[in-house]
Amino acid sequence: MATGGFGSQVTANTSEDLKKVLGGAAYLFTGLTRFSELTAAYAELDGPDFHWKGELLALGIGNGRQAGGGHELCPGAMADDGLLDISILPAPQEVVGTLRELMTNGWGLDTMFVRARLPWVNIKVAQGLYINLDGEPLEGDDLHFEALPKALRVHLPLGSPLVVQADDLLAHRE
Q1: CA dihedral angle for residue 26, residue 30, residue 33, residue 35, rounded to 10 degrees
Q2: Cα separations (Å) of 109 from 10, 102, 169?
Q3: Which of 53, 95, 120, 125 has the fewest CB atoms within 10 Å, i.e. the most exposed one?
């Protein structure tokens, strides 16, 4: 999972000692103490039949579902489908409109994400965008992420929601 935006800043700034004491709650604590530092980052993302540009608060790119602290950033991601799930939380243009939309949708942040499933994606411009690649900081203004099918063997339990099931494959063929 590669993540970008405010959440990545929080992940990078959460101390190991705090994680040992509070576990996953350490990320929430760090986020709350740094909430005043919340700023949008500008990015341009391109992939097959996909283009998005603008200011964002959070970005997730991966074939896994969870980011640091167990936050489900790419809820539909599958480990074995050869695609990357892209989740973008655009920066709100106005706070009142965003609060109205959240209240209307039952405070569900999930409805505000722009999502795509792509074999690859480029981030051409990333001004002020902090990126973490599985917890490691990554820098650059021209980044390329690509799914490499069957590049890594992973053993998961039967019926795992992270892999395409045989029944799903049959349904897609019909």
Answers
A1: -130
A2: 18, 7, 30
A3: 95
Pairwise pLDDT comparison (26 vs 61), residue with the higher score: 61
Q: What CATH number does the domain containing 17 carry?
A: 2.60.200.40
* Residues spanned by the domain of 138: 2-173
Q: Which of 50, 94, 84, 92 is nearest to 64 (CA)?
A: 84
Using a 10 angstrom Cβ sphere, with 0-12 exposed, 13-18 middle and 19 or more buried, the burial of residue 43 is buried
Structure tokens at 104: 């209307």
Closest CA to 83 of 146, 133, 169, 131: 146
pTM, to two decimals: 0.71
Beta strand extents in the chain (DSSP E only): 2-5, 41-47, 50-62, 84-90, 114-118, 120-127, 131-133, 136-138, 143-146
